[in-house]
Amino acid sequence: MNPKFILYFAWYYGFYVVLRGPSYLLASLSLPLTLLFMVTIFTHGTLIAFAIAGGPIAIVAANSINGAADAAFFRIQIRIQDLFVATSITPQNYMLALSLSYLVFSLPGIVLYGILGAYFKVFSLASAPWIIGVLVLLTLTISNLSFIIAGLLKHIRNVWGITAILSIIMTVLPPTFYPYSYLPNGVLYILSISPVTPAAVLLQGIVGLEKMQYSMIVILLVETVVLTLLGRKFIRWRE
Predict the structure, then answer these.
(1) Spatial distance between the Cα atoms of 13 and 206, rounded to a whole number of angstroms
(2) How far is CA 134 from CA 7, 117, 138, 196, 206, in A?
(3) Is the entire prediction scored with pTM above 0.85?
């Protein structure tokens, strides 16, 4: 473990990206805020609490899955990964650094939704640590999925299209902006193939919008372990 590298990389590729290119931040917020607006309008405000609760989930998931483009670009185009291989930096250090950078990049959006959640009494100080835990776990899980996608690619020309499609699928189909109770149990567990689903279900239970589904904790933890192992395999770290 190399905490110094992980923190420096996350600070540079997370925080400084926001400063250098605020348009990227606005782009990452566009889909969740648009869905929040649409859910509020079409449901006459009845589901606004669910849309607010799902906002941080959608932001973290979208930014993390878009990391597949970064990982592929670093490995194939500018070959920065080859430079890290020649140093004492391990693949775990590199994966954690990128994952943390996506969480840092997501912080402004999380804070924005935190303010909305406090105003509409969706979030509370008591629920904050549990929400943060779910978001951190989701970031790690989706980031590892992005490493798998990047490792399977031989050229970066299609990566942005793939990540854009996956971003929409992973934020719209799961019960991110609507109650998970709308779905039959069979469908809910099928959608749990995406880590966004157990994260969204857990968050709805944490804030008291729906009944807590403790089985989703197991599902999310198992997916984290499995995707971490697969991400480590597909990262194509050649010494």
Answers:
(1) 31
(2) 20, 16, 6, 10, 10
(3) yes
